[in-house]
Design goal:
Strand order of the largest sheet: 3-2-1-4-6-5
Largest sheet: 6 strands, mixed
Bound molecules: adenosine-5'-diphosphate
């Protein structure tokens, strides 16, 4: 029996990524992206126009949304704040609550809100919000709390939220399937290494630590983001260089990370430069690996032992040299990559550690769209029973 598809929308401030897929079979019926939404001179004035363009693109590919029996729309929402801990059916109140979170994610949530508003006008089916923060709503208070005045933190909802949660949850579940063990009995670390990078510690399927914080700037070295710096850096840059807080935000989010250290944010270009003997590229690689080792060591201690370490996203899935360098530095702790398995190129989840290694190391391709599409399907199923 062919099941009806779910439309997955990932609306940013100036782009709309879409995928039409069947959650039960993972069959992707169509996908694409509309860019330059609302930019000067762009033919796409707003998210409603972007949806229209999406429908035109789908029609050109032979997909008519009016006849595919669309089941639901799943919306990726970056920030769910302290209260959205699960995928949630969107009604007017929920939409208002997502708007209320805009101060926590000024770059991300406005696009999602516009996308949701336009899509609710267009498609008369259930709309479900899937939050990037939700998987980390289980962080213990000791992990989620910044050591700043309590009243201030509570009043302004300042805490560690974590991001990429949909990916960390998907990968930790897929890794348990890969090793053929019960999710509930596994201690796991997941490394999501793409343009944005984050690590998580997952005990029995429940997230207990993650590297991102109030915003996606904290933690690992990323393509253009610094990750962890001394918070005193802001004062230094302001008093010594006269930089405004906006300048500093741009510096740390857009001009730092691999790009800041080596001039390139794409890991493939970094590798080319490193191979050509570029010192700055080598140092950037070393800093990237060092930061990862630092987090893995911390998570190993927090978890009190580790069963599976998984690599995912663009860099994690495709860069054997990075995986090998990381494991080499941690050999004394039981991380041993098998060189042959590590060099296999594949789109499937696979183990890359030797059979005898105490910790299983795996490459587990993430699929955030599939994870998002499954949620509305699950909610609708549970409601109809
Ligand atoms: P995003 O966070 O935007 O979803 P991706 O998960 O697509 O990012 O990851 C982008 C990063 O993955 C880039 O640094 C890119 O160089 C790297 N990457 C993608 N494909 C490959 C590949 N085949 N080999 C090495 N690195 C790759």
């Amino acid at each position: 029996m062919s099941e009806a598809p779910v439309l997955v929308l990932n609306a940013g401030s100036s782009s709309l990524k879409y995928q039409l897929l069947v959650p039960e079979t993972a069959e992707v019926q169509a996908k694409g992206i509309v860019e330059r939404i609302g930019e000067p001179g762009s033919p796409v004035a707003d998210h409603a126009a972007a949806l229209q363009m999406m429908e035109d693109n789908l029609a050109a590919a032979g997909v008519d949304l009016d006849t595919v029996d669309l089941r639901a729309v799943g919306h990726r929402v970056v920030h769910g704040g302290p209260d959205f801990c699960d995928p949630t059916i969107i009604d007017d109140d929920v939409l208002d609550e997502i708007k209320d979170l805009i101060p926590l994610a000024p770059l991300h949530n406005p696009g999602a809100v516009s996308g949701i508003e336009a899509a609710r006008e267009e498609f008369d089916v259930p709309h479900v919000a899937i939050f990037d923060t939700a998987f980390f709503s289980t962080l213990p208070s000791a992990a989620a709390t910044y050591a700043i005045p309590r009243d201030l933190a509570q009043k302004y909802r300042i805490r560690r939220y974590g991001f990429h949660g949909t990916s960390h949850q998907f990968v930790s579940r897929a890794a348990a399937e890969l090793v053929g063990r019960d999710l509930g009995e596994l201690n796991q670390i997941v490394l999501h290494l793409g343009n944005g990078c984050s690590a998580s510690a997952v005990r029995g399927g429940v997230a207990v630590e993650t590297s991102m914080g109030l915003t996606p700037l904290q933690g690992l070295v990323m393509g253009t983001r610094s990750g962890d710096v001394d918070p005193g850096l802001h004062t230094f840059l302001h008093t010594e260089l006269g930089m405004s807080i906006g300048d500093i935000d741009t510096l740390l989010n857009k001009q730092s990370g691999l790009k800041g250290m080596a001039g390139v944010n794409d890991f493939r270009e970094l590798e080319e430069r490193r191979a050509a003997g570029d010192e700055a590229a080598q140092l950037a690689f070393d800093v990237y690996v060092h930061r990862l080792q630092h987090y893995i060591g911390a998570y190993l201690a927090l978890l009190g032992g580790l069963d599976v370490l998984s690599f995912t996203a663009g860099v994690g899935e495709n860069n054997p040299a990075l995986r090998a360098a990381l494991a080499d530095g941690l050999g004394g702790l039981g991380f041993h990559v098998d060189p042959e398995l590590n060099n296999v190129r594949s789109k499937s989840a696979r183990v890359i550690s030797a059979d005898s290694a105490p910790i299983t190391i795996a490459v587990v391709p993430t699929n955030e769209e599939l994870a998002i599409a499954r949620e509305p399907a699950a909610i609708l199923k549970s409601r109809s029973v």
